[in-house]
Description:
By secondary structure, the protein is an alpha+beta fold. The protein has helices at residues 47-51, 60-77, 87-100, 119-122, 125-132, 162-167; strands at 13-14, 17-25, 31-37, 42-46, 141-144, 157-160.
Amino acid sequence: MVNGRFKDITGQRFGRLLVKHCVGSDKKHQALWVCSCDCGNAFIACGFRLRSGIVKSCGCLRREVSAARARITSRTHGHALKDNHTPEYDVWASMIYRCTNPNHPAWKYYGGRGISVCERWRHSFENFLSDMGFRPTDKHSIDRFPNNDGNYERSNCRWATMKEQAANRRPRSNPQNTLANLGLY
Length: 185
């Protein structure tokens, strides 16, 4: 009892909150307790709400859970803030576009060469994300490896840096560097 009226919960922990001391009661005559949250904030909570588990933090737990849920949802569906797309979604959409649209500027290097996107990925961003995972850094993009002439599919794709991709490029023919032009033929 505190002041003979309330059960003393000083020193008890409820979720992220550690009860410090009682500061009186509210209009409904329920005890109000000063608590310190694990995040460092001070917080006043009703004893009933603490004991029943309704209040577990100063609000930081709810914010963290909401942010994590938003990240999972946005990544799963490919949407980010302000109606933008996640980087992984943009990679997925670009991959499909350059392999299926003859009007794409790079069509001749992808779809025009017969490179396609596997059925599992072509119709499902979620499957693509499940197989490839998140990009390790913003410096990574999708690379067809080990077979640069192969299709976009789990067994032939990786997240790679520009340096890794440069090492995986097809040899380019340069008319000025042919054997005849170099005087070697």
